[in-house]
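Practice problem 4.
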């Protein structure tokens, strides 16, 4: 594995919690989620889509109707509710 430079970033707690929620939902570390989202924003900018929302990594076609309904319900929750549900469902890492 190659050595990557360490970059420290300051962000408000709400943004960090949102990033952590997305990382958990996508099966990534906090750092990997941040890198993924940065790369995606540059790719969208390059393609002339800078204002387009980030797309989830799993395609909708690969999810069942029940999974899509759960995802929609989860995304409609307040951030603190999302965090609580994630903690409730978390299995020992």
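Answer key:
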């Amino acid at each position: 594995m190659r050595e990557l430079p360490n970059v420290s970033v300051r962000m408000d707690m709400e943004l960090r919690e949102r990033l952590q929620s997305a990382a958990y939902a996508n099966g990534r570390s906090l750092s990997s989620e941040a890198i993924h989202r940065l790369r995606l924003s540059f790719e969208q900018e390059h393609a002339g889509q800078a204002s387009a929302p980030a797309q989830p990594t799993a395609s909708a076609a690969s999810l069942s109707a029940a999974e899509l309904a759960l995802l929609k319900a989860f995304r409609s929750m307040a951030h603190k509710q999302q965090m609580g549900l994630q903690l409730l469902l978390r299995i020992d890492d």
